[in-house]
Recover the amino acids of this structure.
């Protein structure tokens, strides 16, 4: 019996023009290229220009994804934008993207799960498509984290960058087998007991200010690998697949040590890991779709490949998704 799946039709990414190197950061705070690379694997990151907003980045990524899919914007009836750095408190930045794409039907909204946001957004769009509520979705991760960084705090300002990535999902009938194309399973988790480990010290109802990102890096690192493993093992249990079946592992690009540690614990070979953290830094909800766009552009990811996504972010939130490309 056939079932409805959410099929990936296209992927796109956008990075601001300005590159900030470790050497430039070393001229501003007490750090060095060697210190940053050794602890994070990051060599450079992109910084949004003055006046360049999160919706601007998301719009560019959405257009790239639509072009990759060979589809026009009028095919889209759902936009889910994962971001922690919206243009305004309201309306949702997703509606700005919707309007600039010329879409006047369906729904558009923002979703906030910090670095796990793209996988949360993917799971949300997938549910709507499978249920038949919508037919075609843009799932976007877009961030301007440079706007919420304390540039005097070397423990955080060296980690993050700006960017956006997007995918086009379309509902389609599949045979209902393990070899189906599309989103096969998603798993989402949150535990608010850890919210003070990674947070922004401002907000409309608390301080009336934007605030700055604050992080207990060692605590985040200590929890990350275990939480990531938890949701990936759930994906394997749900589908009957295992680490050896994975063609590509596309993790959230937070830190090379976390990426390497997660892959090792899961038994995923290093050559199957897609990593862009060296060039992008941590772009939060944008990191996974940017990495997907990178791996699709150079044809590493091909139709039929089994692709595993995972992320962990503030909240704590963590999530996984398994997709047959």
């Amino acid at each position: 019996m056939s079932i409805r799946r959410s099929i990936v039709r296209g992927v796109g990414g956008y990075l601001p023009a300005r590159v900030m190197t470790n050497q430039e950061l070393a001229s501003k705070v007490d750090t060095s290229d060697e210190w940053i690379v050794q602890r994070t694997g990051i060599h450079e990151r992109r910084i949004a220009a003055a006046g360049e907003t999160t919706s601007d980045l998301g719009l560019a990524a959405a257009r790239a994804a639509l072009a990759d899919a060979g589809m026009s914007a009028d095919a889209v009836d759902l936009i889910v934008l994962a971001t922690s750095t919206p243009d305004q408190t309201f309306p949702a930045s997703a509606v700005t993207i919707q309007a600039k794409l010329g879409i006047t039907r369906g729904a558009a909204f923002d979703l906030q799960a910090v670095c796990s946001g793209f996988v949360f957004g993917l799971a949300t769009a997938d549910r709507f498509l499978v249920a038949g509520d919508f037919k075609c979705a843009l799932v976007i991760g877009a961030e301007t984290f440079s706007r919420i960084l304390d540039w005097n705090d070397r423990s955080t300002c060296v980690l993050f960058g700006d960017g956006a990535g997007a995918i086009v999902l379309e509902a389609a009938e599949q045979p209902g087998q393990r070899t189906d194309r599309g989103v096969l399973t998603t798993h989402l988790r949150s535990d608010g007991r850890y919210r003070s480990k990674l947070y922004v010290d401002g907000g409309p109802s608390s301080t009336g200010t934007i605030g700055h990102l604050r992080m207990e890096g060692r605590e985040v690192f200590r929890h990350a690998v275990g939480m990531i493993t938890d949701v990936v093992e759930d994906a394997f249990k749900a589908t009957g697949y295992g680490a050896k079946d994975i063609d590509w592992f596309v993790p959230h690009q937070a830190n090379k040590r976390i990426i390497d540690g997660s892959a090792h614990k899961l038994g995923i070979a290093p050559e199957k890991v897609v990593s862009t953290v060296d060039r992008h830094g941590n772009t939060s909800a944008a990191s996974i779709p940017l990495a997907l766009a990178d791996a699709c552009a150079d044809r590493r990811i091909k139709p039929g490949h089994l692709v595993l996504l995972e992320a962990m972010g503030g909240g704590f939130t963590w999530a996984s998704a398994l997709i047959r490309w």
